[in-house]
Amino acid sequence: MAMYEMLMPAPAPPPINTERYARHDDNPVQRTAEQPVSTFSIDVDTGSYSNVRRMVQQGQRPPADAVRTEEFINYFDYHLPAPASRHTPFKVTTELAPAPWNAQRQVLMIGIKGYELPKRDLPPSNLVFLIDTSGSMEAPDKLPLLKRSLALLVPQLRAQDRVSIVVYAGSAGLVLPPTPGNQHDTILAALDRLEAGGSTNGGDGIRLAYAMARQAFIAGGSNRVLLATDGDFNVGTVDQRALETLVGDARKSGVALSTLGFGQGNYNDALAERLADVGDGQHAYIDSEKEARKVLVQQMQGTLLTIARDVKIQVEFNPAAVAEYRLIGYENRLLRREDFANDRVDAGDIGVGHEVTALYELTPVASEAARLPALRYGTAPAPAGDAREIADLRLRYKLPRATQSTLIDTPILATSATTRPSDALRFASAVAGYADLLRGGGGLDGWDWEQVRATANAARGKDPDGLRGEFLALIDQAQALTVPAAAMVQTGMD
């Protein structure tokens, strides 16, 4: 028996998780009298939410840095009003109400909604699928799911569209040269032939993909590379700065880049998000065919047609009305004050039908809930003044072919505050609370899981796609993952 045991092979070690997330700290509370201006770039990405959802549903506590609150908030549709015509690319709305977590604070919700456009009216698209077929892509939630996901996009393509397929695994290869979009069977057959094997040469793959995009370039159309991968580029061009330069140069020549993440274990979220940012594209994470349909069917128009570029938001708070404020999320989208009016500074883009939502937590001057202690030698208390305006909201954007930005300036009046917040504000606040708790809690006055769930449930509203009901279930699952660990720490059992 002992001899038999000696001959038994040792169990295989568990796979090493090499997923990478960019570190970020929550935005700090700002005293309005000292720092009245807040500036940031909009963000339409949603990859953080679906990636964290995958972890929670698998019973895994997500790393704090995997949680980007703005991507959680922007995952959901808040049914914001759209502009009346295409002459204005988007409509801006605001709402001011008591914060669900503390009635002595307020939440300012800023919403942007792009105009809608029927699919038949979209300009022609030149798409290059850049697909990772390295050996690590064999898992069911990687290349097999990727192929089924892109297959959902194919039936939407038209004769005026063009599709190419480039793969990379050890060396880059052209699977499908530029092909008319209505040749659905040809495109689907090329996808079906893909198999995983080899190491990853993302750098060479990107260069070949951009060569195909240039070959089939459509002037006045949408020219975009869709990069689908599970992880790092570990052969070839591996330096991130070199990749960013490559993607940035292509963006300037009219070819955008969006990223689609798949799988787990070696997923490089930080790189996928950054490349999409530099490439004027969107970053999404596909964890199921349902998510693929949401991203590649329901929301694909927004990906294909950009209606406003370099969209920046700047809010100047009135120190006579607001003692303190904090931007919830957007930590890696912050801009310097002088960047707002500098048209050479890149920012996020909005596509057809896109919604962007941002939340600020405010502490009114009359509130006793101020967080920052008084300074001994510093700024005196906020001067008395006209408190009829809470803030001045400024947005800058460029039309797709413009080089100079357009300014929208809207004062936010104290009289706009409501004591009966909309379902949209309450649900978005609950999503922000969920993200805060996943990151460790403490950012929203001790708002707990039960309170977050009650707020979300009361504001659930119509839920035709079931995403809000799924969110309620995620709250319960995440609470089960985090509360026992917190209890162990408190009792000294960690």
Portion in strands: 25-35%
Q: CATH topology of the largest domain, which one?
A: Immunoglobulin-like
Into how many domains do the coordinates divide?
Answer: 2
- What is the CA-based Rg, rounded? 24 Å
Keywords:
single chain; Rossmann fold; Immunoglobulin-like; 494 residues; globular; disordered C terminus; alpha+beta; 6-stranded mixed β-sheet; 16 strands; 5-stranded antiparallel β-sheet
Describe this structure in words.
- The protein has helices spanning 2-7, 47-57, 69-73, 143-153, 184-192, 202-215, 240-252, 269-278, 289-298, 300-304, 423-438, 449-458, 467-490, and strands at residues 30-31, 37-41, 90-99, 102-114, 125-132, 162-169, 171-180, 222-229, 256-261, 283-285, 306-317, 322-328, 348-351, 355-364, 389-398, 406-413.
- The model is unreliable at 486-494 (pLDDT under 50).
- The chain has 2 domains: 30-117 and 307-373 and 384-423, Sandwich (Immunoglobulin-like), CATH 2.60.40.1230; 123-304, Rossmann fold.
- Helix content is 29%, strand content 25%.
- It is globular.
- The strands form 3 sheets. The protein has a 6-stranded mixed sheet with strand order 7-6-5-8-9-10, with helices on both faces. Strands 1-12-14-4-3 form a 5-stranded antiparallel sheet. Strands 2, 11, 13, 15 and 16 form a 5-stranded antiparallel sheet that branches.
- It is of the alpha+beta class and 494 residues long.
- It starts with a helix and ends with a helix.
